[in-house]
Amino acid sequence: MALSSRPYAPRSYSSGSLPPGVKWLLITNSAMYVLYFSLMAAGAGHLLNWAGLVPAQTVGGLRIWQPVTYLFLHSAASFWHILLNMLTLYMFGADLERQWGTREFLRYYFLCGIGAGVTVVVASFLFGNPTAMTIGASGAIYGLLMAFGMLYPDRQILFSFLFPIPAKYFVLILGAIAFLSTVGTSGGGGVSHVAHLGGLVCGYFYLRSRRRRAGFRGRAWDAPGWLSRQYKEWRLRRAKRKFEVYLREHRSAKRDEP
Description:
Blueprint: H1 20-43, H2 45-51, H3 55-60, H4 66-69, H5 79-100, H6 102-126, H7 138-151, E1 156-159, E2 163-166, H8 167-183, H9 191-210, H10 223-256
């Protein structure tokens, strides 16, 4: 998403229509899932080895396309994997594309997805298993969630489809889960959580660097700044309570004096 300084005027889409970027991402991911599922009996391993993200192959074998192609593969053994990713893309991506336009939306989507892939590659060599494979669009999807939380911080989202919470808290919860899962998992099992965290971080810093450009309508939510303010307010309330306790004890001591 390269946000220019000129007045931003993306193509207008009606609220009831699905923008083309989201639509074609849904179609492409679904088609690749069906293809992978249909090829399982005929040896889908060739497709995975070529397009899945394996850090040892990406770096050692110079398969530099893998940080892109892995975004279009989802595990055939878990229908929920692609279902949740595509549902999130549909629910949150449409509003972002309507505001930014198709070109900028797709640029941001792939930036977060590729950034998440690069994060997986680096983390696998430093802390994990470089031969472990990562597939799925979750890194890009988490980037979309970060953008939604920054652009529409107070919009209500049903957490677990049951509890309405503001989008900014929803993103904070997802970020905390991804971070704690990454820290608490060793080896190759943690690379998917690393991808989630990488998508969130890449999305945040990219949007942060562009927040004064025309792509943002209104004030963007500053997550670190908000956390810092909450901490300062907590310290102020804590100091105030301590001072009130001191005053009560001091007054009580003065009344007890002969």
